Amino acid sequence: MAALGWLTPHRRSATARSVLAGEASAEAARKTSQPAPEPQFPVPGDEHAAAFFDLDNTVMQGAAIFHFGRGLYKRKFFQRRELARFAWQQAWFRLAGVEDPEHMQDARDSALSIVKGHRVSELMTIGEEIYDEYMADRIWPGTRALAQAHLDAGQRVWLVTAAPVETATIIARRLGLTGALGTVAESVDGVYTGKLVGEPLHGPAKAEAVRALAAAEGLDLSRCAAYSDSHNDIPMLSLVGHPYAINPDAKLRRYAREREWRLRDYRTGRKAAKVGIPAAAGVGAIAGGTAAAVALHRRRR
């Protein structure tokens, strides 16, 4: 009978190989199972939801105030020395891909001194022309599509930027957006005084503007979205239920990944992703900006 022992079933303990086989099978089943579909976003018809987009390097390549400065120089609003400053600031901004407070403040001070004494209506008309000349071709198609998705869903979309509110309003209108929140320059009887009302709409000020607008418009911020490239806008991004990092700088990318925020990068090249622009464009931008500054300096001599 002992010889027939092999015919008798025995309960054997799992071996290492069988455990491995079982775990592999379970993992394969998990990977091939159909994941639950993500909820549609943006949600069509949600009247209590809206989207807020930063402008510089999020919706548009570069900084709006620098492009505006180029247009004003073309119209002889200021001299070559100021153009050299604008050229260097724009080259630095494109290379770094982030907002440097000192550079931005310098640019704002320059712009305020330039427009002082001019009528608001005059600058609005010129701003329309400058948009066509220097800004229209610098809109990121990917970000534009995101904004359009919110519009198609019946939601309101605002730009939120440190750029002058007049410039931001022009861009928002040209893109078919709802409106814009921007830095307000003081004017008396329709003429710029060369001063700001309050402070630039930057960092925490953006968050306060979004919070105030949401309250006035009856929006639920937990159902709203915000988009930005800069860590300076973390206060604004943190307000909403759907924050997006668009073309993010290194600090925002790290912060967004830690919190599992969604990221979109419309720039090309992995090296460029670290500095904020395509590699070839980066070399061209810094070289072009520096060359312009050097050339103007030589001419003045």
Can you describe this structure?
There is one protein chain. The radius of gyration is 27 Å and the shape is elongated. It has 301 residues and is α/β, with parallel strands linked by helices. The protein is built from 12 helices and 8 strands. The strands form 2 sheets. Strands 3-2-1-6-7-8 form a 6-stranded parallel β-sheet, sandwiched between helices. Strands 4-5 form a two-stranded antiparallel ribbon. Residues 270-301 have low confidence and may be disordered. The chain starts with 15 loop residues before the first helix and ends with a helix.
Q: Order of strands in the sheet with the most strands? A: 3-2-1-6-7-8
Q: Tell me, what's the shape?
A: elongated
Please state the average pLDDT score: 79
Q: What structural class do helix, strand and pairing data support?
A: alpha/beta
Helix fraction by DSSP (H/I, runs of at least 4): 40-55%
Tally of extended strands?
8
How are the SSEs ordered, and which strands pair?
Elements: H1 16-32, E1 50-53, H2 64-74, H3 80-96, H4 101-115, H5 120-135, H6 141-152, E2 156-164, H7 165-174, E3 179-183, E4 185-188, E5 191-196, H8 204-217, E6 225-228, H9 234-239, E7 242-246, H10 250-258, E8 262-264, H11 270-275, H12 279-300
Parallel strand pairs: 1-2, 1-6, 2-3, 6-7, 7-8
Antiparallel strand pairs: 4-5
